[in-house]
Amino acid sequence: MNLIYPEFEVARNTERCTKCGICVKQCPNGVHALKVDPTTGEQKLAADDSRCVDCQHCVVFCPVRALKIVKSGNVYRENAYWAQKTINEIHLQAEHSGVLLSSMGSPEPYPVYFDRILLNASQVTNPPIDPLREPMETRVSLGAKPKTIERDPAGRIVNNLGPQIELSLPVMFSAMSYGSISLNAHESLARAAEELGIMYNAGEGGLHESLYKYGRNTIVQVASGRFGVHPDYLNCGAAIEIKMGQGAKPGIGGHLPGTKIGADISRTRMIPEGTDAISPAPHHDIYSIEDLRQLVFSLKEATDYQKPVIVKIAAVHNAAAIASGIARSGADIIAIDGFRGGTGAAPTRIRDHVGIPIELALASVDQRLREEGIRDSVSLVVGGGIRSSADVVKAVALGADSVYIGTAALVALGCRLCRNCHAGRCAWGIATQDPELVKRLNPNTGYKRLVNLVRGWQHEIQEMMGGMGINAIESLRGNRLMLRGIGLNERELEILGIKHAGE
Amino acid sequence: MREGQIRIPSGCAVAGVIDRLGRRFSGEVIIRSIAAMRDRSNGLGGGFAAYGIYPHYSQWYALHIFYDHHGAKVDCEQYLKQHFEIADQSPIPTRHMQEITDSPLIWRYFVNPIPARLYRCGMDQREYVARSVLAVNRQIDGAYVFSSGKNMGIFKGVGYPEDIARFYRLEEYEGYCFTAHGRYPTNTPGWWGGAHPFGLLDYSVVHNGEISSYDTNRRTIEMYGYSCTLQTDTEVIAYIVDYLHRAKGLTFDEIAQVLAPPFWQAIEEMPPEKRECAAYLRSTFASLLVNGPFSIIVGFSGGLLALNDRLKLRSMVVGEKGDVVYFASEEAAIRVVEPEPDRVWAPKGGEPVIVAQAGGTER
């Protein structure tokens, strides 16, 4: 017996419903069923609300718009301390024991600093620039910048710039492994990255052989499980990322259940079929910063110093000090993942209670690296909660060289944030390995939707830059005078390094 | 509120004149030129940089210092005596004028680092002087060094530029190069140090514009040991020029490419060697790109660099007559002193005009 009343209710408009049965076929959770009334012999569509996760797939695909999903509305006695959700979670654990699991980024109502920062625009003393009339450059290059200018005997500057990543705009698709998402989702990301002139990150599950051709737009990841890591893999990508942490689950590793390890994933990850893929919490060869340095240089040796190395960490309390250490460890780029960052599966308590907002981590890391005079020796990439072009502009103005987007990219592919990735029955064909479901995501349309989204953002970024009188995004990076806080206290303003609106 | 406590945007007029052969002429020329653009300033700031004016002390750093009060002078002179040999010190000659009020004490010192001290700290001479200037401006309340180059001097204050020139008796100086600035701040600062030109060592900058990349530039240059105490665009541009030329050894042509780099599309279309260099400078010094409207004239020993922002959102006209080159925000300011120039043109956005005498630049 399930002690918890369903959270959602399927509302079916019987006047519109034609009983076509599409909803029955579309729902991977078996919510809808076509039943025959034993007395009248009439066909009837029924719904088992308890199975519904509100993924919206049936709603979107119902040809007559007869469906919508509503909150069930059943309420417990009001209690300002013991929320209904809390009570339900206790029932769940009392029933099944174990760790509560969740997916995607934390939905809890913590402050969103992006929404408390406003942008500037030019008036009178400084003209806004019209991006439709004038060049508006969003191109960035990521990687360490040289400390000294060298000249040949003829006095010409010697190109001593280390390996860089070139991006047409400061947006990349963040790490999502093959396994946590489907091959069709991966292919959509890869093709979109190629067309957009940006990068996607293959994540920690290796790289499927069919995607090697997108190597120039691929960041390959090396995580604690070392899945699918071999020389060809490292040399295929444009950059290598060492994953030390993830914003959704700082301090813990990952677990892809054996049920998802089919033949293809097994080959790509280089692990036996059907075994659980476990990423340990630490890299067992990195127990401190000097070990990290050795891995950074091992990877550089393996790739002949041709690839920039990214070190990705979760945004945690002492991120600034950690980043400062990483900047001195041979890394070319530091990626910081905020606590709103998504995941295919994480313990709920970790996801909702560990880590800090990316805005604060970014501001303090950028400032610390400048105070120590080492900001030029690394680029900063931030992810974990970037929802729109406005977030991108604010992140760059706070000091980021580029952002990673993960959740926003999945939403472009169809995701409605039902946050049930861990169940592996994603109706949109994204977070699943079920061949029937995977087929639902067509890479031909998927990649176009991603391209549309990012191009749209690019136009918006250009409009906002133009309004500020800036025609090269380099001039926005770290330009905190373009930002003002709204409704923030002095301490928050100090950490963000910005003034309050009106100042 | 004065510069440093608040950021004050301003519009302006700039002018410059240089003799390529290094022949010296009176400051009268630049005064008449900038006076022609009186309606581009509002009486809240004017100033001049003059090169080649101290031939008798050409091997000494000429420090021009504002003192708010006598106590500042005592403190500052104590600092100077500790750090420098002083060849000469005197008030800068001025004339009493109705238009100019509230002038601070204005003194001039010809100095060189004390050799033993210089040797002990292991810096080169220019680094030593630059750091000392920055230290005085940061640490000694009421003292402000506004000029610190060899055989050059900055003269500035609150007033219309032509009045400031008469106040300083600029027409009595002879130099091979002058720049000028008339200020139109959108606020009412009453502080002489906030006027232009802004200088460090022999670099001086006059600037018309309001840069939108200010905080990016400031936070970057402060990482290299500068502190932007005035919060003005001109200050940050002067530090960038000093950093790129003195610390990084870039040529003025390369510096212009950092301040106003070609668009990426133009870089892609360059021949390979040029492209590599342009892409290198742009990637390496991305945070020193100066964005938003500006026209600047950078003075240095033996030369001038004039540059507009990449879109040319501020005016800048150049005129040539024989070996004399004129720069001004408006053509009228050139024709008023040289009615028949051989050539007058408006350089494109991001296209530098560099006039340098052979062997002119002190390194």
Which characteristics define this entry?
heterodimer, A: 503 residues, alpha/beta, Alpha-Beta Plaits, TIM Barrel, 2 domains, eight-stranded parallel beta sheet, three-stranded mixed beta sheet, 15 helices, 21 strands, B: 363 residues, alpha+beta, Glutamine Phosphoribosylpyrophosphate, subunit 1, domain 1, seven-stranded antiparallel beta sheet, five-stranded antiparallel beta sheet, 29% strand
Question: Would you write up a description of this structure?
Answer:
The complex is a heterodimer of chains A (503) and B (363). With 503 residues, chain A is α/β, with parallel strands linked by helices. Chain A has two domains: 91 residues, Alpha-Beta Plaits (2-Layer Sandwich), CATH 3.30.70; 348 residues, Aldolase class I (TIM Barrel), CATH 3.20.20. Chain A has 15 helices and 21 strands. In chain A, strand 2 and strand 3 form a beta hairpin. Chain B folds into two domains: 248 residues, Glutamine Phosphoribosylpyrophosphate, subunit 1, domain 1 (4-Layer Sandwich), CATH 3.60.20; 85 residues, 2-Layer Sandwich (Alpha-Beta Plaits). The longest helix of chain B is centred in the middle third of the chain and has 15 residues. Chain B has 363 residues and is an alpha+beta fold. The two termini of chain B are 38 Å apart. In chain B, strands 8-3-10-1-16-15-17 form a seven-stranded antiparallel beta sheet. Chain B has eleven helices and 18 strands. The mean pLDDT of chain B is 92. In chain B, a hairpin with a 2-residue loop joins strand 15 and strand 16. The radius of gyration of chain B is 19 Å and the shape is globular. Chain B is 29% helix and 29% strand. The interface between A and B is large, with 38 and 43 residues.
